[in-house]
From TrEMBL:
<dbReference type="Pfam" id="PF01408">
    <property type="entry name" value="GFO_IDH_MocA"/>
</dbReference>
<dbReference type="InterPro" id="IPR036291">
    <property type="entry name" value="NAD(P)-bd_dom_sf"/>
</dbReference>
<dbReference type="InterPro" id="IPR000683">
    <property type="entry name" value="Gfo/Idh/MocA-like_OxRdtase_N"/>
</dbReference>
<comment type="similarity">
    <text>Belongs to the Gfo/Idh/MocA family.</text>
</comment>
<protein>
    <recommendedName>
        <fullName>D-xylose 1-dehydrogenase (NADP(+), D-xylono-1,5-lactone-forming)</fullName>
        <ecNumber>1.1.1.179</ecNumber>
    </recommendedName>
</protein>
<keyword id="KW-0560">Oxidoreductase</keyword>
<dbReference type="GO" id="GO:0047837">
    <property type="term" value="F:D-xylose 1-dehydrogenase (NADP+) activity"/>
</dbReference>
<feature type="domain" description="Gfo/Idh/MocA-like oxidoreductase N-terminal">
    <location>
        <begin position="39"/>
        <end position="156"/>
    </location>
</feature>
<dbReference type="GO" id="GO:0000166">
    <property type="term" value="F:nucleotide binding"/>
</dbReference>
<dbReference type="InterPro" id="IPR050984">
    <property type="entry name" value="Gfo/Idh/MocA_domain"/>
</dbReference>
Amino acid sequence: MATALKDLYSRLANIYTAINPPVVSKAVAGKDGAATQPLRMGILGAANIAPLAVISPAKSHPDIIVSGVAARSKAKATAFAKKYGIPHVFDSYDALINDPGIDVVYNPLPNGLHKEWTLKCIAAKKHVLLEKPSTSNEAEAKELFAAAKAANVLVLEAFHYRFHPALHEFAYHLHDLMTGTNPMMDCAAHLVAPAGIIKEDDIRFNWKLAGGSLMDMGCYSTSAVLYTMRAAAGTWQRANWQERIEVQEARPTYFTPTSADLRDRQKVHLTDDQSPGIDTAMSATVLVPTPRDVKLPCKVESSLAETAFTLPILGWRVPSLWRSTPTLKASFKDGSTAELQNFVAPFLWHSIKVTYRGKSAQAHNLADGTTKYFKAYIPGATSGTEQMRRAAKDGHWPQGTGQPWWTTYRWQLEAFVRGVRAVQAGTPGHEVGPIDFINQDRSTDTPRVPVWVHNEESVIIMQTLDAIYEKSGLGKRPSKNA
C-alpha cells in the first residue's frame, strides 16, 4: 500500500509539472563554447492544440522559443499571442513564413491545408513540425516529402506518442515474445473520443478539409499497428511495404449532423455529389506484408463520438471507460499477448501488460498464463541493449535523457530541435534518424537523432488511410481545388 501511494503521489507530481513546466534559460553552448541563439518558431494558426504541442514544451527547452503566430485574422492572432506570451504577431501566414526572424514553423492547420502551406515553408527553407496526418492523401504526401528532400528541409510528422519511452519499452517486450517459431499473429489499436467532446461544426467533420474519424483518431491507430508489426516482425525494410498493404474490410459510421443548419444548408460533411463523405467512426482490418511471406491482420478503430449506452429517460450518452482508454495490443502464436494501455498519452499514465503462455512462459521460467506489468516514463535498463535496438526500429532514447514529467510533446520537441540542429550541422534532412541495420553505411560524421518518424513511413500511413477510405466506400480525402 505504501509503495502504491508513493507511486501515485509521484505520478500526480509529475503530471502537475508537465502542466506547469519550468521555464529555462534560452541559450545553449555552441562548438566553441560560446552561447548560441535558440531556434525561433512560428505557428500557423491559433490552433487549440498549439499550447499543448509546442508552447508549453518550449518553456522547458533551452534551444527553442515560440516567437510568432499568424492566423486567419490578425485580431485572432493578437489575442492568441497575448494569452500565451508570444512576442510577434504577423499579418498573414505568408508574412510569418518569409520572415527572416523565424527559423522553424509549426503547422497545425486543417488537414486539407497541410500540403499548401508546408510547401511554402519548404520554398522559404523553413523546417516544419507538421501536424498529423501529413496531408489529405498519399499523392500529396509523396509530393510534399519529395520537395522537402530536394530542398534539404526537415519535415517531421507530429506523431508525438512515437517519441515517448513507453512505446519503445513496449516494442522491447514485443520483440522479446517473438521468435522464429512464435510469430506475431495479429495486432489491434483503438482510439476514440467520447460523444459530445467534439462539436458538430468542428473542422474534423468537413469533407473538403480532409476530415473524418480515420484522419483524426484513426491515423494514430494506423501508425501504431504498423509500428507494432515492425517491432515484432523482425524486419528492417519497412516490412516489405513496397508491396501495397491490403484492406480486408472497412466499416464506417456515417456522420449526419443533428443541427438542421449543418445538415441541410452548410452540408460540409457531404462530397461534391452530395454523398456521405465523413466517418464519425471507422473499424478496419488491414493486411500488412511480413518477412514470413504472409500478411498480418491489423485492426484499426477510431471514433469521434464513442458511446457505450444512453441513459433511459434522461437520454444522456455515457462513454465506455474501457473503450476511452487508447489501447494497442498484439497476440502471438503461443497465445502470449502484449498490451500498451494509453499509448497516445503515456506521460499521464500507462501500463504495459505482458501475458506469457506456451513457449514464451517456458523461456522465461514462468507458469503458463503469468502476467507481468511494465512502465517507462524515462529510458530504463532496457535502453541501449541489442534487443531494444532490434525492437524499437525507429530508435530509442539513451539512458539519462529526459525527465519523468516530460509529455509526449516535449519528447517530440526534443527530437525536432535535434533534427534541425543536425541538418544545420551538415546531416542531410532525410537522414537525421538513427542509424540501424539497413543504413549502417551512412556517415556518422554529423549528428543524428535517437528517435525519428521517417518521411517514408508518413507516406505509407497516408497510403493505408487512402486504402481504408476506398474500401469503406467513402473514398480517399480530396486534394484542395481537386
